[in-house]
Structure to design on (711 residues):
């Protein structure tokens, strides 16, 4: 397990495009939005958070794109299968590494921008925690989409997993309201953590089955 | 000692039969050469033996606990955005790395160990991929078309390595569309060759 | 329960101004179902022809 | 033993043979019940006190929406059978049911939209039910796209089954969360179908339409599964009896 985490983080750190790209896209989208409206007319703070949520959704599927494709194309998946007999540990470490190296930085950028734009909600820490948790959920889901589509392009993966991600977006929206009105935040964070843990445990099983089908 | 046995293996893809009712055994210290033309299913048969692909009918049984298999197929599992050294470090522990370095020297890759693997030639990449098999101790070595893309000198080194391993009791399964490179049993699965 | 809800044919068509919505929904619905049957039938005929052709040539 | 039992009754050959005999029954019963239900609903059922005559769309809309979900659940059962017991027929059935599901979901959406014009004054409302039906529609298309993307059809079958199973777990979650979202943001959403308090004179034609559409869709499913089974098993000998 430690071997896999080490190997995956080493590989990801060597691919500048894969980890820096999503962060830059996140920043660019967040800059692009205010440019598209007349900020003297609108109260940006009111709906800037929804832009953060949507860009979170977008960047997380950009970030997970090709997550398994490289290993599938060059035969690493088969070698891994011979060692472990399934992909559970591999998938678990991959998602962990991606969340740590890409997901959490994206959440940090999102939290920063939400404050820079005066979204007056709670503390920095609570927004950051919220966005990080949603990234954990989204990365698990999009990893599933990517495992299904593997080398057939990101479009197919997104198409099959995005509908499943919509409840997460709703949950995120609700959490933001709860921060604004100052109640139920802890309950929602607990709920999201629970779902996150459950998904992190179960999704690798399903993704592993999909990957097994691909190398079959 | 019997290592592995295949019983009545049949494999079909999209309802087209690739091969039909193959049975064979592999004992330790024994070599098996699978011969067949293009598209005859050599690689698929290897993948069935490895347990990666499941056969349409029949089964493969391993008789040893924790069978240690080294395998190299058409896909070389090399990351071309890493250097050869980094590639090897991902694979091996310290003891194995020592042997891997010896092979790097023998293959003339030692000076290239810090270049990007993408800049290496196909033959050099193939040699690097072979080290995966050569530097690890295993009970069974499975190679798919090992000689393709190798120069004569490397081919000879590989052949003598395999012969030595055979004498140490390691089993061997190879494929090619030509005659075997070492002296062993031949399983001809037919030439579906056009 | 089994009395016509309308007095004459024009009323049936008009349905107090809602007729256009009601009737277009049913028209589209029936044509979609009908078309799906046609497509399915055609697919069967096509594949049967293909199989026949293949067997005749071999 | 279970596996042997299932495989005996799930060969594509016996499925085609049995359904071939059942097809006229489903078609005739389904279509005549649809005609009965819809004529009753359109011409004889009394006007709705609140919505006037536009409510008559219900006799097409509600059955469509019911089967939009039922077909997905049917697919999920097949997907489980395919994943657990490797029943090939199950995958064939998913692949032939998915377009029908997409079609009927589209019909539900379209009829709902048109219904919205006289009742809500707009053809699209961010109502919980409509939103989750739209998501369901996209899920059907996603399943079809996934299956169409792989040239190795057995792989495609398995991946599609995995997606269907994950999807069916998600449907209630999506429905619940969308419901939740809509009650948060839209305090007074218009409730359309009356639910339990519906008058028998409207309920009977509705029930008949539901059953009628169900039988018609089964007939359609038999046809489309037959064409798909023929396509997949075209090299088998038993096919020759059917051409």
């Amino acid at each position: 397990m430690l071997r896999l985490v080490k190997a995956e983080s080493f590989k990801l750190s060597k691919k500048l495009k894969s980890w820096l790209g999503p962060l830059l896209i996140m920043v660019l989208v967040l800059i692009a939005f205010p440019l598209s409206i007349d900020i003297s007319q609108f109260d940006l703070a009111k709906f800037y958070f929804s832009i953060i949520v949507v860009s979170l959704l977008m960047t997380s599927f950009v970030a997970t794109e090709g997550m398994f494709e490289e290993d599938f194309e060059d035969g690493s998946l088969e070698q891994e299968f011979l060692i472990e007999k399934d992909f559970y540990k591999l998938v678990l470490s991959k998602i962990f590494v991606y969340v740590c190296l890409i997901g959490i930085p994206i959440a940090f950028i999102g939290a920063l921008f939400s404050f820079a734009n005066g979204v007056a909600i709670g503390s920095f820490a609570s927004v950051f925690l919220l966005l990080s948790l949603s990234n954990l959920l989204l990365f698990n889901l999009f990893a599933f989409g990517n495992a299904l589509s593997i080398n057939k392009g990101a479009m197919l993966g997104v198409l099959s997993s995005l509908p499943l991600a919509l409840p997460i977006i709703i949950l995120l929206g609700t959490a933001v309201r709860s921060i604004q009105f100052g109640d139920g935040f802890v309950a929602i964070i607990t709920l999201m953590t629970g779902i996150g843990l459950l998904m992190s445990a179960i999704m690798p099983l399903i993704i592993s089955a999909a990957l097994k089908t691909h190398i079959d | 000692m019997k290592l592995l046995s295949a019983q009545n293996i049949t494999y079909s893809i999209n309802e087209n039969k690739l091969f039909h009712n193959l049975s064979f055994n592999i004992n330790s210290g024994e070599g098996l050469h699978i011969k067949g033309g293009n598209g005859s299913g050599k690689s698929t048969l290897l993948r069935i033996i490895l347990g990666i692909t499941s056969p349409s009918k029949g089964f493969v049984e391993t008789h040893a606990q924790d069978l240690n298999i080294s395998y190299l197929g058409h896909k070389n599992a090399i990351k071309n955005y890493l250097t050869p050294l980094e590639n090897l470090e991902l694979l091996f522990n310290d003891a194995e790395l020592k042997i891997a370095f010896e092979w790097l020297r023998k293959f003339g890759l030692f000076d290239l160990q810090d270049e990007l693997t993408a800049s290496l030639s196909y033959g050099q990449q193939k040699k690097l991929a072979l080290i995966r098999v050569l530097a690890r101790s295993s009970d069974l070595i499975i190679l798919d078309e090992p000689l393709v893309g190798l120069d004569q000198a490397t081919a000879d080194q590989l052949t003598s390595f395999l012969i030595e391993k055979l004498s140490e009791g390691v089993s061997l399964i190879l494929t090619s569309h030509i005659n075997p490179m070492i002296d062993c049993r031949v399983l001809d699965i037919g030439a579906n060759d056009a | 329960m089994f009395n016509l809800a309308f007095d004459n044919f024009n009323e049936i068509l008009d349905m107090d101004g809602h007729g256009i919505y009601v009737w277009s929904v049913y028209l589209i619905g029936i044509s979609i179902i009908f078309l799906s049957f046609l497509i399915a039938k055609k697919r069967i005929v096509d594949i049967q022809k293909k199989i026949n052709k293949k067997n005749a040539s071999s | 033993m279970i596996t042997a039992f299932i495989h005996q009754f799930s060969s594509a050959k016996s499925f085609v043979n049995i359904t071939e005999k059942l097809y006229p029954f489903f078609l005739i019963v389904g279509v005549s019940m649809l005609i009965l239900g819809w004529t009753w609903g359109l011409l004889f059922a009394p006007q709705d006190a609140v919505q006037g005559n536009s409510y008559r769309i219900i006799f097409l809309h509600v059955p469509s929406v019911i089967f939009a979900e039922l077909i997905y659940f049917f697919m999920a059962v097949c997907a489980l059978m395919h994943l657990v017991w490797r029943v090939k027929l199950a995958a064939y059935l998913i692949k032939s049911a998915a377009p029908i599901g997409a079609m009927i979901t589209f019909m539900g959406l379209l009829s709902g939209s048109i219904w919205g014009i006289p009742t809500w004054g707009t053809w699209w409302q961010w109502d919980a039910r409509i939103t989750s039906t739209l998501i369901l529609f996209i899920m059907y298309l996603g399943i079809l796209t996934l299956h169409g993307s792989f040239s190795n059809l057995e792989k495609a079958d398995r991946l599609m089954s995995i997606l269907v199973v994950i999807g069916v777990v998600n449907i209630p979650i999506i429905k619940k969360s969308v419901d939740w979202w809509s009650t948060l943001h839209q305090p007074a959403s218009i409730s359309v179908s009356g639910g339990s308090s519906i008058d028998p004179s409207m309920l009977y034609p509705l029930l008949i339409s539901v059953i009628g559409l169900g039988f018609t869709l089964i007939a359609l499913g038999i046809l489309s599964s037959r064409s798909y089974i023929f396509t997949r098993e075209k090299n088998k000998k038993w096919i020759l009896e059917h051409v």
